[in-house]
Amino acid sequence: MTFEDALQQALNGLSFGALLFILAAGLSLIFGMMDVVNLAHGAFYMLGAYVALSVTRATGSFWVALVVAPLALAVLGLIVEPLLLRRLRGRHLDQVLITIGLSLVIADFIRLRDDWGWGATVRSLPVPPGLDHSIQVAGSDYPIYRLFVIGFSAALALLLYALHRRTRLGALVRAGVGDAQMLSALGVDTDRLFTFTFAVGAGLAGLAGVIAAPVFGLQPGMDVDALIYSLIVVVVGGLGSLSGAVAGSAVVGPADTFGKVLVPQFALALIFAIMALVLLFRPTGLLGRVRLGR
Amino acid sequence: MSRATVARAAIVLAVWAALATFPQWSQFWESSRFAAGIIRQILIFAIFASSLNLLVGYAGLPSLGHAAFFGGGAYAAAIAAQRLGTDQLLVSLGAGVAGAALLALVVGFLAVRALGIFFLMLTLALAQMVFAIAFQATDLTGGSNGFSGVHRPMLFGIDLSAANDLYLLVCVTFLLVTVLLWRVTTSSYGRVLVGVRENERRMRALGYDTRTLKLSAFVLAGAIAGIAGALSAYEFRFVSPNDVALGTSVTGFVMVLIGGAGTLLGPVLGAAVVLLIERVLPSQLPAQTILGIVFILFVVFARQGIVGAVRRVARA
Q1: Which residue of B has its CA nearest to A223?
Q2: Quick one: which of B94, B207, B89, B104 has its CA closest to B155?
Q3: How far apart are CA B62 and CA B120, in angstroms?
Q4: Does any CB of chain B come closer than 8 Å to the CB of residue A232?
Q5: Higher pLDDT, A196 or A90
Q6: pLDDT tens-place string over residues A115-159
Q7: Which residues, at least 6 apart from B241, have a Cβ–Cβ distance to it below 8 Å?
Q8: CB contact under 8 A, A97 and B113
Q9: Yes or no, beta carbons of A98 and B120 under 8 Å apart
Q10: Cross-chain Cβ contact A109/B296 below 8 Å
Q11: What is the pTM of this model?
Q12: How far is A101 from chain B (nearest CA, A)?
């Protein structure tokens, strides 16, 4: 592998990691607040991509889709949380099971909507105009959209960090992650806070779906892939914290990309091996506070 | 054995005998062959769901990766029969069980370290790795095309390739597995597993090595799932990566929960309900959507499944 190739793959790894961050941040946020691993997260990601497809077709603009699709997913979160999850508060495993049922329904819904241009065939979302060309990076062409993904994700991370650290809402979320029961006793409406958190998490999944669609396309099974990758990221990085999502995606993105180039047969085995090692020697994940086991 | 146990065993045997002779007494019904096929598949998935139930319902280990052992067993049985060039049932079934148990040992070794929801995440992720291997090892498994041309087996000199013989094989295996699971869950080992589910810390304090206990249950459940997988390979004469995929794990979980976790009858009923929804409802209806909604309703309103709901009604 030449230096140019290595640089190119490093950028690929970074942009994949950047995408994984957007995906895993939502999963981690919901878990941190509610102790629920949202197994419909991959389905939310998938739905975000398909909504973006329809919005782009209708309006002709990727940028409208980039705003509308995450909002649509957030609204879905606003409906789902009070309707389904709130009834089972305190029964964490049952809440997780509900999200499995939800993901079945969403994936089947997408599969059956041929009339919306969704369905079971592979669809593609064009790279937005302006970002659809390549630029010279260290002497070779590199698609500018992938650089955009890196920049977008970094900006999002900073924004989330600022919201988390510097606003009243962020303080409430941090308090809720620390001790939701105490927060409730102090007079904060934690039900509303939970619903809000779930909606933001769903919106982030939708956002990841939109951002990923021009690169990876839209097809059945993308929900499972997204779910698996985001689970690995949060296990490696540590659940329930923003910095954990950053650390996990920074490890898994490049590892997966280089693995696919260097040892194509064992690429998946590589990231699973990383996960297994982290689990054996650092059961909280690299930066987590929650022990996954003993 | 108490009188109630004897009565229950007698009922189970009577129902089983009626089921086992179904192709004979229903042969003048025009849909008899179709119905027998559905019953075979229900029983195969009932074995799969029952093995998962040992984890979910008894040991309190919510595995969302059980398809790895179902599909792993199916592949092992099919590959062993092909490579060894034999149609002997005991060889391929044995390979299926051994392959699945070995896989469960590896996956379980990592997974039993995690608790509750994390166990669920880990089993899901590790099973997906098995799926990736099945998908990529094209030489061995046929990759995305699947493994076709699985032979129906022979038991010593008896050819089991006719549909009715396969039917009897599935029925007998189902009975044996059920008896085994009944013995296991009512043994002191089964009680200890339930103890681990209820309060693992206390069981550790009592001197039980709970991690090894959980791993042993995981391997046993994996081995039984391998039996179901091998039977499924004979049934469809085909093994596909779908058999290892998350969808199959979810189907098993849905069967256990709908039927009633922690009961022997529950997973069997659950398998029947799920397969009737998937295979018998008119194909215009969105089966997966219906399953998803039914599953959500059971989790919210009837967490103990059909068996639990019936018990509650009977008691009231």
Answers
A1: B246
A2: B89
A3: 6
A4: yes
A5: A196
A6: 888 888 889 888 888 888 888 877 778 888 999 999 999 999 999
A7: B71, B131, B134, B135, B141, B143, B144, B146
A8: no
A9: no
A10: no
A11: 0.90
A12: 4
